[in-house]
Amino acid sequence: MINSTSYLPTYGQSPLFPLLRLGEKPRCPSTAVCASLIPEGKHYYHLRTRKRRVLQKFLAEVSPDNKTVVTEPTATKAVDDHSSVVPLLVSASDIVKNFYGGINSRDLVSVEDLIAQDCIYEDLVFPRPFVGRKAILEFFQKFVGSISEELQFVIDDISAEDSSRVGVTWHLEWKGQPFPFSKGCSFYRLEVINGKRQIVYGRDSVEPAMKPGETALVAIRGVTWLLERFPQLADRL
Predict the structure, then answer these.
(1) β-strand 115-123 against 196-206: which pairing, if any?
(2) 78 pLDDT more than 50
(3) Helix (H) or strand (E) holding 152
(4) Cβ atoms within 10 A of the Cβ of 6, count?
(5) Quick one: how far is CA 201 from the chain centroid?
(6) Residue 177, beta-bridge partner list
(7) How many degrees, rounded to 5, is the angle at CA 162 between CA 160 and CA 163?
(8) How crowded is residue 230: how many other Cβ atoms within 10 Å of its Cβ?
(9) If exposure means fewest CB atoms within 10 Å of the residue's CB, which of 121, 124, 148, 166 is most exposed?
(10) Distance CA 118, CA 109 (A)
(11) pLDDT per residue over 144-172, tens digit each?
């Protein structure tokens, strides 16, 4: 920055401006300098510089008697506040995809961190849910130990818009071919725990091997008929 009270040489005072007349713009021999408070009597020319460093070099050639002061800008120390940086979380749908990927590769170690410590997992084939990460991992250890590595989960569709709830439809394939009676749908709820998104609840509903068809409707109608007449039975369900 140039001190507004300082003066650059007027016409005839410096060999740098041998042809400076009223109305003329000085030209720096080394660059296209357009400006900086150059007085000609009471007239001033406001010059501009494309590059401040070039202007500073040009003004440095001026005699110190001119009292022209070029000040260096105060260095601004960049503030790198890492404490405000929030690590990116893996999306809920990717967590679920990684869950199935770990089961397919039989890598339960990679699955462990995806499951919350107090997770509840319901597989509707079983009478009671599995509670806790340890119980869930033990179940999947038995599951992958009882089937061939050629049997793989294949995701048909998965929701990706919600950050805390994921729905999935899937089926099993044997060497790339659909496995019979293996279609299923699952629901997962996730939460961020200690900076990580984890599964806190899961439910699997698998295609039944026996399909009663309309007989199932008859059974449902019969049960509702009993409940209507004997509502106290609802407490035993």
Answers:
(1) parallel
(2) no
(3) strand 151-158
(4) 16
(5) 23
(6) 174
(7) 105
(8) 10
(9) 148
(10) 17
(11) 999 888 999 999 999 999 999 999 999 99
Cβ neighbours for 132, distance < 8 A, ≥ 6 positions apart:
117, 118, 119
Q: Which tokens hold the place of 126? A: 């079983």
Q: Which residue has the tokens 């890492």?
A: 82
Q: How confident is the model at residue 235 (pLDDT cuts 50, 70, 90)?
A: confident
Q: How far apart are CA 67 and CA 86, in angstroms?
A: 51
User: Please, are residues 187 and 203 in contact by the beta-carbon 8 Å criterion?
Assistant: yes
Beta-bridged to residue 29, according to DSSP, are none
Contacts of 186 (CB under 8 A, 6+ apart): 167, 168, 170, 202, 203, 204, 205
Token pair listed for 148: 């061939």
Percent of the chain with pLDDT over 90: 48
Q: Which residue has the tokens 């800008």?
A: 73
